[in-house]
Structures are given as structure tokens and as C-alpha cells.
Amino acid sequence: MKKNSIYIVLIAMMLTGGLAGCSDSFFVRPPQDQLTADNFYASESDLRMATAPLYNTVWFDYNDKASFTVGDSRAGNMITTDAGYEQFLLFSITSGNDRLNEAWRSLYLAISQSNLTIKNIREKAASGIPDESKERAIAEARFMRGYAYSYLAQLWGAVPILTDPAKLIDQPNVRRNLAEDVYQFAINDFEYAAEHLSPTDDPGRVTQWSALGMLARLHHARATFRAEGSGNLDQEELNTAKDYARQVIEESGLSLLDNYADLFKLENENSEESLFALQWTYEGSTWGVQNTTQAYFAAEAALTGVGDGWGGGTGVSAWLLQQYAPNDQRRKATFMLNGDHYPELMQEEGGYTYEGTGASGPGSAIKKYIIGRPSDNDGRVGFMRTGINTYMLRLAEVYLIYAQAELGNQQSTSDSKALQYYNAVRNRAGLSSKTSITHHDILLEKWKELAYEGQNWFQLVRWHHHEPNAVLDFIDQQERNMSFEYTQGGDTTYTEPPTNITAEHSDFNLPYPEADIVQNPNLMEEPVPYDFSNQQGAGEANKQ
């Protein structure tokens, strides 16, 4: 099937006025009949509805499969029979890969819809709406735009910075902008969001703390980016990342949930640990407003009770399995092994016990975001539909960013605050405190904390910026195609891989999608600087 270029999709969106919203109680939108941008932005509640699709629809293609593929399969977390995931796992990805195209398309859809929202609020919002409310709505849109560009910067490096899709009609052959400028553009958006978002808001809406948390993440990422293989992280960026993380941890009043497994239950959605999560609904017939993760990764159809549950061919990699201590409470909440019992699943039958085998499949299954049948969730499950949120930023990650930024260029640190925040994450998992921590300690702690949340590959990208050869050695030691058979209470049998999977330095920037290269040959030209003179507006063009 011929894939559409993202530029064709963006222009179509612009001409048709954007995307439909979802239908749950948080993101209700009115009937679309006789509704236009000229008469919609009439009240503060209209602004709230205008930003609602930015929390789900535009991210659907990324969440549907691409997030796991890019963030976890490429990181080495999976063993799988799915060819689409496997290309990322084995570093054999081509520019025609469906997951690659979905990631690129979804990120630019989020950008385009954010741009349209900003433009319409500035040009169409009623004069009687308080400026503070307009700025808050624009800040939500800029937060989403910044988030999408933060991913593009880390996955592709130099990409086009687009702020007005309408100009694509007259100027479709846009140039890429420098990766440094893409980072800066995203940071500028988060700074605006931090200034204009409220400290508190309705559950699920991003807040000032969400933006500050993202600034901590992105400044730490840029500290590695600016190292350029030298092994020395940018100290100014580290200090900035640490300060933003400190503000979130010490001034927000937010805290970690007591039980790690509770993070992935419907009743704890939008808890105080969630700084940004995509908001999904299981209701209705509109495609693209639901979370489909359970359909693809539930170990078997019996688990979901609605006809999906196709995850029998995908499970945890042998390498990831070996990173968890026997008493790490995150392990069972993250993936299933033979004999694991889950009382919250298939409750009417007394719970669910996983009995996968190494001979017929991976011998394990993903647990995160698997919530079970309709009867386990007050009916809130359908075929390829759950309403469980997708975490995009959690407070636990900010704790660990603080520790990373404090460690910086040192071999180890015993800084009291860094240890306090690092050990808070470990202690919740049932692990003992450490008195000194290294880069490797924090890397693995963050890895286990965020496994199957689409974040681990980004850790390797950041590490590769400042210690590229060390990352290649790390990947080599993962033995990515090793299989295993696990017996609860017994020995785990590992089968050595026939050949080892290795990575090249070029693998740390994803290829540009084939359809976009054909549509826009300038995508392969040298990147150019971006003109930041009017980033706040929705209509500035990238420098040609």
C-alpha cells in the first residue's frame, strides 16, 4: 500500500480544519455540524475543548505501535516474532518500515494540530475571553508541540521546524533545520508553557510542573548532545536540568505512589505521579481516541475477553530479564513469567496465571498496560479499546534526572539529595538504598523504572552522544536474539544466540521515511539554521 507523505497529510488536515476530539467526560466536544473556527472560539470552555484532541487523537499512531517499537524494541527490551518490531531490534530498519512512518507522521500531526490551535486562538478567539485563558490554552498547544519536537530531535536529529502548515501548499519542499535548533525550539516552547500553565488544573491536563519536568529532561538531553563524543557533558546544561528537576520535586507538592503496580491500574489514572499522560477512552466508535496496547500485547485472548490479545509472540528479552533482582517489585508489574499470578486479571475466575513456554514462544509476556476484561474494569474495555492513559512523563523519572544531572561528569556521587531521590525510586521497588551511585547505576535504575513506557532507546541515544563506543559495547553485551526458558522456583535456561546483533554509530539517527523523501527531496539536503525571530507566532517560516 502506498504511504502518504506527512506533507500531504498535514495539508489535508489544514484544509479540513483539524481532527475530531474524543468523547469521554474529560474531553467532550460539541457536535461538529455548523461549527467553524470563526464561531467556535467564543468562550473559555471552547478553548478547553479546542486543546482536548492534543491529548489523544494526534498521538494515536505513535502510541498504537511506534512507541513500543522505537522506545523498547530498539532498546533491546523485546524478543518477538513481529517483523516490524524486529527490524528495530536488529538494526535492520528500512525507510519503508511502517512503524518508522507512523512515528514520523504522528509527531508531525501533533505539531500541525498544535500550530492550528495556536493560530486559531490568536486570530479567532473572542475578545471577551481573558488574555490569561488564551495564554494558558496556547501554552497547552506549545507544550504538545515542544514534546513532539523533543522526540524528533533525539530520534532524527535535523528535521524541518514547521509552524504554519498552510505554507506547505506554496512551499512544500522545506529544508531540515539544525538539530541544535530543534532542541532549542522545543525548549522555548516548554519555557512558554512553564510560564503560562497553571500549577494545578483538571486531572489529566498538563501543568506548570509538567513543563518544568520536560525542561529538566530536555536540558539533560542537550547536555549529552553538546558533548559530541568528548565524554564531557555540558555543565551549564546539567545545572539547568538539575534546577528544573529540583523545582518539580521540592515545590510541586507531588509525590510517588506507594505501590509501583498501582501506576498501571485504571483507578489511579492522573495520579500525582503523572506529569503528562495521553488521555484515552474506550467508548464510542471513533477510531484513534483509544489505547490499543492491550490488544497487541496481552498474552492471550482469554485475558481480554473481547477477541483481541495477540501478544503471544512478544515478550521480555533475556538481557532485560537479568537486570531485575528477585525482590524487585517492578518486574512482575512490567512483564509476566511462567507461574506469575495476577488477581486483578480475570477476577471472575479467581485471577490469571501466566503459563507461557519457551518452546512455543518467548516464554514471557508484557504486563504494563494490560488491564484485563471488561468485567475487571467496570466495563471499560472493548475490542482493541481500553481507556488507560499512556505515561509520557512521570515524577519518578524527574527524581532520576536530578541524580543524573548531579552526577554529571563525575565517576560517582554520594550527594545527599541525589541519593535521596535515587533511593526513593529504588525503595519503592523493594530494593535497599545505595550510598554511592554511578552513571551505570542510574541508567539501569531508570531503565527498569520505565521499561515498556517507550523511553529506554532515548537513554541510549543520549549516552551515545558523549560516549559512543561505550554504547556500542553495551548493545553488544545485550545479546539481543538470545532466547530463554523460565521455570518459577527453578533455573532459567538461556540459549546462546547463533549470531550476535551489533549496532553502528549511524544507527543512532533513524532514517527519514521514504514517502517523505520522494515528496520533498530537500529533506536530504544539508540542514540550515532556524530563524527564531518570531517563534511565538504560528506563522513563521523555516529559513530556506
Question: In brief, what are we looking at here?
Answer:
With 544 residues, the chain is mostly helical.
Descriptive account of the structure:
The protein has helices at 6-16, 37-40, 44-51, 60-73, 83-89, 98-124, 131-155, 167-170, 179-196, 208-225, 235-251, 293-297, 301-304, 318-321, 330-334, 395-407, 416-428, 439-450, 456-466, 468-478, 514-519; strands spanning 78-80, 274-278, 314-316, 335-337, 341-342, 352-353, 364-366, 381-382, 385-386, 390-394, 412-413, 437-438, 483-485, 493-495. The chain has 544 residues and is mainly alpha-helical. It folds into three domains: 1-197, Serine Threonine Protein Phosphatase 5, Tetratricopeptide repeat, CATH 1.25.40.390; 208-262 and 393-466, Serine Threonine Protein Phosphatase 5, Tetratricopeptide repeat; 293-388, no CATH class. Strands 1-3 form a two-stranded antiparallel ribbon. The longest helix is centred in the first third of the chain and has 27 residues, at 98-124. The two termini are 32 Å apart. Residues 9-35 and 537-544 have low confidence and may be disordered. Belongs to the SusD family. Keywords: Cell outer membrane, Membrane, Signal. Residues 75-218 form the SusD-like N-terminal domain. It holds the Pfam family SusD-like_3. Residues 321-525 form the RagB/SusD domain.
